[in-house]
Structures are given as C-alpha cells and as structure tokens.
Amino acid sequence: MTTAKDANGIDLDIKDAMEGYERFRLAFERDRAFYKSLATRQQTPRLLWIGCSDSRVVPSQITQADPGELFEVRNIANCVPPSWADDEAVGAAIAYALDHLGIDDIVICGHTGCGGLAALAEPMTPKCTSHLGRWMDYTRPAHRLVAAARVPEEERGLATVQAHVLFQVDNLMTYEAVAQGVAEGRVGIHGWLYVMETGEIQAYDRESGHWRDLLATAN
Ligand SMILES: [Zn+2]
Predict the structure, then answer these.
(1) If both were cysteines, with which of 7, 23, 132, 169 could 126 make a disulfide (CB 3.0 to 4.6 Å apart)?
(2) What per-residue confidence (pLDDT) applies to 126?
(3) CA 105 to mean position of chain CA atoms
(4) Are 134 and 120 in contact (CB under 8 A)?
C-alpha cells in the first residue's frame, strides 16, 4: 500500500487501475457484441474454480479463459472448509455452482510459494483468535501429515501444498451435492497445483497417486 500521489493528487495505485480501466473500455468497444451477449444471457461457466487469493495466480490467465467461463472462489490458501465448519462463503458458492449453474467440474488449484500455507510453518504464526489465525487452521491437516511423514526439509513446502489440495478435495466431498454428484458420475473433482516457477499445472492422478503435468493426464 502506498499513499504516493500524482501531480493531480490521485493515488498512484488507483491511477494504475484507472488507466487499466481506460484500456478495458477500448477493448469493450471492440468486442461489444461479446460483452452484450454476456450481459443478456445467464452465465454458463464451465468450471467451478477454487483457488488462492494470491495476486500472482490468476485463474483466467493460467487457463486462458474468457469472461463467463470460470465461476471462481478465491480465498487465502484455496481452502474448502468442511460442510459443518463455521463458513458460508465456500459452501454457498458450491451450492450455487452445482444447483443453479449446473456446473459439473470442480477444480481445486493450489500453488507453489503459497504464503497462506507457509504461515503456519513460520516461527511467528498468526494468533488463533484472529480471522487469519482461524482461517489458517484449515491448513493444519496438511502440515500435520507432512510432519508425521518426516518429509525432508527441502521437499516439505511442495509436499504441504500438494497434501493441502488433496485435503480440500476430501472436504468437497462433505457437501452433499458434491458427494451425490460424484457418486452418480455427474460431477468431477480435479486437484491441481500451479507451479509458479515454471508456469506448469500439475494434476493429481487418482489411479497412480502421483502428480503429473496436466497435459499428460486424463484428469
Ligand atoms: Zn496461496
């Protein structure tokens, strides 16, 4: 955050957004028919994307999706609280996606270098009484599993991110609409991991229990 201002007294961060908006308006005019069709029809997104709030991990960029294609839930560390947890945001999005939008594929996408997942591994962990501290509790199972498995230190970060994605896949199944959809073969759940350093997406392959490049799987 900065309070730096330009010569007209406009906050530089806001100015950046204003300039981007100006460019967007030009793009909107060029593609007016497309945007009009979005505005006049119900949305029909292809995927429910549950990802991290991290500003460097942009779902529509990674998948090259157009507006209207991804129904997104983003929160710190791409958490799916179990259905009985004290959180409504993720459960409401799941219900809306499945029951109202008819989405039949859910992607949980974690990423390397996730600050949310690193939080509990740091010496100064957030206070458990704070919003952040309570939210970080949803990452605890992955940390516990990796600690119990005695993963070598240099592999711990990646192993935690991967384990965390799989725990969120499990948590998705605590929602009746999801569990029923999966049981009937109507809904697919996909555990993915975006590798920020290389731009690759790894997908979890249930058959082999391994993570593979998305393009090498039938996930
Ligand atoms: Zn993250």
Answers:
(1) 132
(2) 66
(3) 14
(4) no
Rounded to the nearest angstrom, the distance between the alpha carbon of 157 and the centre of ligand 1 is 12
**Token pair listed for 6:** 């330009």
Give distance in angstroms: CA of 56 to centre of ligand 1.
Answer: 9
Give residue 94's Cα distance to chain centre. Answer: 13
In this predicted structure, what is the pLDDT of residue 123? Answer: 59
CATH value of 44-216 in 3.40.1050.10, 3.90.180.10, 2.30.30.220, 3.40.50.1110: 3.40.1050.10
The Cα 158–Cα 74 span in angstroms is 20
pLDDT in tens, 75-132: 999 999 999 998 999 999 999 999 999 999 999 999 999 999 988 776 556 677 789 9
Within a 10 A sphere around the Cβ of 180, how many other Cβ atoms? 12
